What does this fold into?
Amino acid sequence: MKNRIPPPARPSSTGAPAASPSPAASPSPAVPPAPAAARGSRLGWLDALRGLAALVVVMQHFGLLEMLPHGEFVRRNFDMGLFGVMLFFIVSGYIIPASLERRGDVRGFWIGRIFRIHPALIVTLAFASFMLPGSDGSIRILRTSDDPASVTANGLLLQDFLGVVNGMSVSWTLCYEMVFYFFVTALFTRGLHRHSAPIAAGCAALALAVGTAVGEHLLTPGPGSVRPLLLIVTPVVLAGFAGVLSGRPGPTRAGAVLLGGLGLVLVTLNSRAPWYETWTIFATMFAGTAVYRAQHATRRRTPSLVAIGFVVVAGTLVGWLYNRGGFENHTWTTGWMSWSSAYLAAWIVFGLGFLLRERRFPRVLTWLGAISFSLYLLHYPLMRMLGPLVGVPPLPSSTLGKFVWTGLFLAVVLAASHLMYRLVELPMQNLGRRVQRAAARRWPAAAPAAPAVPVPAPRAGEDGPARVGATARDGG
It folds into this structure.
């Protein structure tokens, strides 16, 4: 099979302009697919980092530091939750745009995202709502003064930007993932996806320059303003999705720009967090994409490397500049040191994983990466269910008691996460692939443009080289 180079004027199925042919882009002989083992080892480092990030956040919520000597000193100077969150966001930024570019199909990308995220999230919310008492504050999807608004905002995965309480106390990170997808889709359909380095640097500059000067929830200052905003946002999101799922170039471009523009408005004017956190998160994800660009670039790597370095410095510096004077309560950290050290450590660990990417990682770490999304979703409600059954809180005072409680919790949550992955995540991912094929047959799209850069082939059972996982810090 030869590479297909579409005519210059023909749009791709994403709505992005097709690549112009050049002598270097002439058809080439087919390249045999890499063996499954090679593909697995190529992506094993990402699974390992994802699994490590999820496990660190789980142990943060579990209260591991409270049971360790000098744990309070560590907590004041290093935030495990922030470390896990930022590590995951770097990984997500590195691989999510690659998944979209490998497809060259915005509709297929979004169908894959929906079937990967929502089924497991819905199952977890239903299970936890049934098992946990109404007084438990970690599950609030149907325990608010305005349940229709809660269900709508959480269903759109935009609750953190709409002034609506998170349905699960740990689901706020999914809002940032969703808006990042909005941005990536809009950039891709406009042919601007190669500019991740300046975008990352720009987001970091906003975090540095503005910091705490812009308030949070400017569009929803009170409960009475939530519904009017939802009445505007919901049809905009539905119209955007109608466009990106159409498979046609014009509607795809229009829908993607609509979603990207909405995301920009909500992030700018209605974030729950201070600007230094919000824009550092997006700078971090786009910097992850810049790493990918630099890795696969044949020339002009210096701008990407400079932008990445600036993001790392800025993300570390904003902690010292702004994460103090009460604003640390907005980020659920203890102060500037806990923020800055954790942020810098996330990049160091990612860098080590990147340097070791050709090596085969321990299977337990890659397995943790596979179940990381289920682990993220289930660990908090399972901890709230299991604790009262064994008399926790208070935490055990004896060393033996601490070991037993930790071992019991890990055994339960890892087993449940594996079952969720096997019984919910994988079947729904397979269903999503069938839906993609059915949509392609029923509403054929134009031939996709060739990817701008090489993209690793997925392993068996994947719909792309990325799994959506997420991590969460304390709070909601």
In short: Residues 1-40, 447-476 have pLDDT under 50 and may be disordered.
